[in-house]
Amino acid sequence: MWKSGTRRKLFKPMVTGLLLVIFMVALVGAYVVVVEENGVQAADFAKPGYVLTFHDEFDGNSLDYNKWNDWDINFGNREPGIVTTSNDFAYCPENVRVSGGCLRITASRNPITAAQCGGGTRTVNYRTGEINTKNKFQQTYGWFEARIKLPKARALYPGFWLMPAEGVGMIDENGGAGAEVDIMEYETYWMGNQVTSSIWYGGYGSNLQGGGIGSTYSPISDANDWHVYALNWEPGKLEIYVDGVKTQEHTGEGVPYGDEIIILSMAVASWGKPCLDSELPDAMLVDYVRVYQKASHAARLQSGGQRQQGTPSGQDATTMVVNDSHPCIIYAGSWMPYNNPLTYRGDFHYSKTLLDTYIIPFVGKRLRAYGLKDRWCGMVAVFVDNKLLKTVDCYSPKPAAYQLLYDTGNLPYGEHTVMLVNLRQKNPEALGYYHYADEFRIYR
Q1: Please, what sign has the CA dihedral across residues 65, 71, 72, 75?
Q2: pLDDT digits (tens, 9 = 90+) for 53-110
Q3: Residues 210, 215, 220, 224: is their CA dihedral positive or negative?
Q4: Would you call the peptide bond into 281 cis, given omega within 30 degrees of 0 as the criterion?
Q5: Rounded to an integer, what distance in angstroms lies between the CA atom of residue 27 and that of residue 231?
Q6: CA 261, CA 134: separation in Å to the nearest integer?
Q7: Would the pTM of this model clear 0.90, i.e. be above it?
């Protein structure tokens, strides 16, 4: 691998400890990548018309703290906490774990004295868990999806929901832009084979407004089996999906229009329904969480580039030069930034992990990608507007900067999306599977 100094370790791979089966098929221009993963395929990541902005497959042995907090949003620093005076449970980090390819949020009978919202402490009988993306990921509009298996023990209240990001506030007379959006909530035992969805805004006092979205309840075949719960959030509209079928819609007041964070949690023994302690512990399982943004809503590279002396020639007044760290470039997986004075603006991103991906939405008629080539480089696949453009071998026997890695060729002027995927393949001469992203040129 070519860089100044010693090689640094990457973050943990996006897919670890898995039996990966990859098929590359080149028939009549078709290209297929399939990853067998407990019945979930990497092809499932693709969503036509959308770009992937956040995901966690929970394939490791611990929670990814770069993406999640494991304490309630009202507390901090992994502090167990009791949210309301009526709760007989506390959210505790130790009741959240990742194993067997799933997130596990467990409810247990285990008394604890913990801090309570508003001050003071109190002893409660039950412990449970929550994860959230507060101050780590937030988004306005898009598709929010999770594959979840609900617990069986009675009087548990698992949920997959959104809350306003820090500083956004709830929609009310003071002008907030957010709302509580309950994508899926379930009251075990009593609710049967149906889940509920709700929207709440106006604050949690006397001005609280909202309630069920559409028909409130979404039927499911078996509440204790795996199901995919999703929200399609557009300006002025919320749609609820269960296993790919739209079950509810809300277009009235309260639809948020500011950034929201993701929460997965489970309440215990609330609203007058007692637990049966012999049924505990029991857990809510989450296979994955994935968030997408519609390409039309995603920020596109239309400005913010610059001309740079000393880089490859061929640019003119209609060419925009974009650095690898531009905020409109979406990196997914184990990409890492690195500084090197020989590269464009002194930095680049690199990857060596299977299925590491970057996505570049742009407006123009052509894109060229430049980067480093050396003997550590492997092969990548490049897609334009969800169609395979080519596979690219970035190997070079000698290190060289400012190398053309791929060129989309001429496209109809307009909105386009380029996606690059690390195949973790190499030619026999190469020593590794690295790919270096450094500079992009957009022609308009």
Answers
A1: negative
A2: 889 999 999 999 989 999 888 887 788 988 888 888 999 999 999 999 999 999 999 9
A3: positive
A4: yes
A5: 36
A6: 6
A7: no
3-state secondary structure the chain: CCCCCCCCCCCCCCCCCCCCCCCCCCECCECCCCCCECCECHHHHCCCCEEEEEEECCCCCCCCCCCCECCCCCCCCCCCEECCCCCCEEECHHHEEEECCEEEEEEEEEEEEEEECCCCEEEEEEEECEEECCCCCCECCEEEEEEEECCCCCCEEEEEEEEECCCCCECCCCCCCECEEEEEECCCCCCCCEEEEEEEECCCCCCCEEEEEEEEEEECCCCCCEEEEEEEEECCEEEEEECCEEEEEECCCCCCCCCEEEEEEEEECCCCCCCCHHHCCEEEEEEEEEEEEECCCCCCECCCCCCCCCCCCCCCCCEEEEECCCCCCEEECCCEEEECCCCHHHEEEEECCCCCEEEEEEEECEEEEEEEEECCECEEEEEECCEEEEEEECECCCCEEEEEEEECCCCCCEEEEEEEEEEEECCCCCCCCEEEECEEEEEC
The whole-angstrom separation of Cα 8 and Cα 1 is 10
- In sequence order, the 6+-apart residues with CB closer than 8 A to the CB of 43 are 32, 33, 34
Q: Domains in the chain, please, with CATH?
A: 50-294 (2.60.120.200), 298-443 (2.60.120.260)
Per residue in 359-381, pLDDT (tens digit) is 999 888 999 999 999 999 999 99
- Neighbouring CB atoms inside 10 A of 164's CB total 22
